[in-house]
Amino acid sequence: MSAASSRVYLAGPDVFLPAPQDWAARRQAVCARFGLAGVTPLDALAGEPAGWAALPEWRRIALRNEAHIRSCTAVIANLTPFRGPSADVGTVYEVGFARALGMPVFGYATVAAPFLARTLAALGEGARVDADGGWWDLDGLLVEQFGLFDNLMIEGGILASGGALVVDDAADRWQDLAVFERCVAAVAERLAG
User: Fold this and answer.
1) What are residue 17's phi and psi, to 5 degrees?
2) pLDDT higher than 60, residue 178
3) Separation CA 58–CA 64 (nearest Å)
4) Confidence of residue 98 (pLDDT cuts 50, 70, 90)
5) Is 163 exposed, middle or buried (0-12, 13-18, 19+ CB in 10 A)?
6) Which of 68, 88, 125, 131 can pair with 13 through a Cys bridge, CB separation 3.0 to 4.6 Å?
């Protein structure tokens, strides 16, 4: 399939930003420059079943997002740490959902610190290291230490899908589009090939 005919789902916590529609439009414009049609969770769903209108809003959003993902060729996920050391859990769900559907998944983040460093910073005084160099939290649970950007299943799933993870520090982690643009370029190249 050519990149020019490809719809890509833009997953991420971006829906929580101020003026999320404006932000979505900016990201969709980047996608368009690379010949891709960016689909966001805020987009209307063509042919949305009438029966969904009776459902609570949260349920309609979940169903709509899954339907959007199914209608796309690939997923681009904003994995910038969100309200903690890891990516937004809803976004991670969407990464797994797309992976299970067999589509390529690409991720990007505007914070380059590895998962272990971010987790230890979040734990603060609650982290302890043992004689073998293993880190443990206050509950006595081992902290993941593979040197990856986030949990191994996220990165493993992205790479196994044929996608890529683009990570770099941005001047403004929630408003800078440079890392996103590099990820979109990787998607366009992959879908064109």
Assistant:
1) -70, 155
2) yes
3) 10
4) very high
5) buried
6) 88
Q: d(Cα 68, Cα 71) in Å, to the nearest integer?
A: 5
Please give the Cα distance from 96 to 90 (Å, whole number). 10
Other C-beta atoms within 10 Å of 49: how many? 11
Per-residue pLDDT reduced to its tens digit, 141-172:
999 999 999 999 999 999 999 999 999 999 99
4 has pLDDT over 60: no
List of domains in the chain: 3-112+149-192 (3.40.50.450), 114-147 (no CATH)
DSSP class of residue 124 equals: G
Spatial distance between the Cα atoms of 142 and 127, rounded to a whole number of angstroms: 10
Question: What span, in angstroms and rounded, lies between the C-alpha atoms of 187 and 170?
Answer: 20
Interatomic CA distance for residues 120 and 136, integer angstroms: 9
